[in-house]
Amino acid sequence: MKSIVVDVASQCLDYLEHGVGVRSYAVSTSRYGLGEKRDSFKTPRGRHVIRAKIGIGMPAGSVFSGRRPTGETVMPNSLAETDSDLILSRILWLSGLESGKNRGRDVDTMARYIYIHGTPFENLLGTAASCGCVRMASTDVIELFDLVPVGTKVVIS
Fold it and tell me: pTM for the whole thing?
């Protein structure tokens, strides 16, 4: 069984097989902290599942808007940090599994469009810098994307 654990305190994502750590990646979660409310720009806690995988076969650095490739590519660390939270390379779209906590009404992770995705701001990995999603280096998110199927459990704490 494959699973993912995101540890916000250490800004680390661990990929596990049968409960054993296989890979560990530096990530960035929300600069606004943890929380589940819509429009909070916070990273949602708890148990989730990968509901969809988007971007198979796209080049590293491909920019996505509305979960569709724009045709642009961006190199790591080539942009000044802005409020823009560009989505690059791959998208692992999360859905909450805990009704009333991260699923349903105004706390729904999927309706909030919370993803694990690539970022142009790889220099900020290891720090809380996103607008709610879990950011990864493009090469790392491509590797993770290829390792996990839809339905993989993800815990964020």
Answer: 0.95
